[in-house]
Write a structure and sequence with these properties.
The protein is built from 10 helices and 10 strands. The protein is an alpha/beta fold. The radius of gyration is 20 Å and the shape is globular. It starts with a strand and ends in a 24-residue tail after the last helix. The structure holds 5'-O-[(R)-(carboxyoxy)(hydroxy)phosphoryl]adenosine and zinc ion.
């Protein structure tokens, strides 16, 4: 089964080809970062318009680079949600249109399920069951994954997502968009332990997160320091290092607790924040201490990509081909993960 995957849920246009027999055959991506940077965030209408311009050429490139033609395809998978509705509609209409024209089924894919399963694209694959820490710009959750479509949400953020906490922290430190990787870069030059920030909800029981208090703590700290003088480069780096450490400690602490609560020995980290080096190192260290293993998608598949959409679409199509016989364009800006069922 060879499946074309299309991703347009936010500010990345991506297409990829996954082959159930040979694995990932190609993946192409265009990032709109430069388009949105002057506005300090994603402008939905600009995102939709840019997806329209870039998607078809990317599909052509993904097919050519995989060495396949439309007649080799068994289906077209597209991100149906959650995400920006206009952006989703571009991928959905193109995906369904191509599928219809090529006479193959169209498979609407849940973006967060695709993030959850992205680690399965790697040679070092986690076996089911595992706990997934899903940390992106829009979501932070811990999920028990018993198999494809068998998800139980263990904990979620009560306010900001972890990626949002990185992005908002970066803005407070005067860093350009997109803030997460910029803050991580600045933190590399800083010292941990100069400023004390709360580890939100780490002491509270349960597996939920909350990051808005941490963001407020940083805002107050920046305001206090700036009252006497402009922030020095060293102070900004130290603030970034301690702020990042507070987020990482919280994510690691809750992940360990989720493993303990479920009895599972495998943790999969997914979503854009999974690209964070300190988080990756600390999880590897702390999990090995308790005899558990952490799995990651390669860095480029932590953030949005087409490969995870092609993979997830292929898995569902192989297991339940009859579910994708009707022609329907699906775009669901809100789509809770636990509404998904086993294929
Ligand atoms: O999964 P993703 O690409 O898009 C969403 O579906 O949200 O995640 C993007 C998020 C952004 O908030 C970005 O700042 C964050 O992931 N991010 C990082 C790093 N790389 C991306 N946060 C911390 N450290 C990084 N290295
Ligand atoms: Zn994402």
């Amino acid at each position: 089964m060879i499946v074309l995957g299309i991703e347009t849920s936010c500010d990345e246009t991506a297409a990829a080809v996954y082959d159930s027999a040979r694995g990932l055959r190609s993946h192409c991506l265009y990032s709109q970062v430069a388009t949105h940077a002057p506005f300090g965030g994603v402008v939905p209408e600009l995102a939709s318009r840019d997806h329209i311009r870039k998607l078809i050429p990317l599909v052509d490139a993904a097919l050519a680079s995989a060495g396949v033609t439309p007649s080799d395809l068994g289906g077209v998978a597209y991100t149906a949600g959650p995400g920006l509705v206009g952006a989703l509609l571009v991928g959905a209409t193109v995906g369904v249109g191509l599928a219809l024209g090529w006479g193959v089924p169209a498979v609407p894919v849940h973006h967060m399920e695709a993030h959850l399963l992205a680690a399965l694209l790697e040679a070092e694959q986690p076996a089911f069951p595992f706990v997934a820490l899903l940390v992106s710009g829009g979501h932070s959750m811990l999920v028990e994954v018993a198999g494809i479509g068998r998800y139980r949400i263990l904990g979620e953020t009560l306010d900001d997502a972890a990626g949002e906490a990185f992005d908002k922290g970066a803005k407070l430190l005067g860093l350009p968009y997109p803030g997460g990787p910029e803050l991580a870069r600045l933190a590399e030059r800083g010292r941990v332990g100069q400023f004390r920030f709360p580890r939100p909800m780490l002491k509270a029981p349960g597996l939920d997160f909350s990051f808005s208090g941490l963001k407020t703590a940083l805002a107050l700290r920046v305001r206090d320091l700036q009252a006497s003088a402009t922030l020095s480069e060293g102070q900004r780096a130290d603030l970034a290092a301690d702020y990042q450490q507070a987020i990482v400690d919280t994510l690691v602490g809750k992940s360990l607790r989720a493993l303990e609560a479920t009895g599972h020995r495998r943790l999969v980290v997914a979503g854009g924040v999974g690209a964070n080096r300190i988080l990756r190192e600390q999880l590897r260290e702390d999990l090995s201490r308790i005899g558990a293993t952490v799995y990651y998608p390669r860095i480029e598949f932590c953030t949005d990509n087409g490969a995870m959409i092609a993979y997830t679409g292929c898995q569902r199509l192989v297991r339940a081909p009859a579910a994708y016989s009707s022609v329907r364009v699906e775009a669901r800006p809100r789509w809770p993960l636990d509404e998904l069922t086993e294929p």
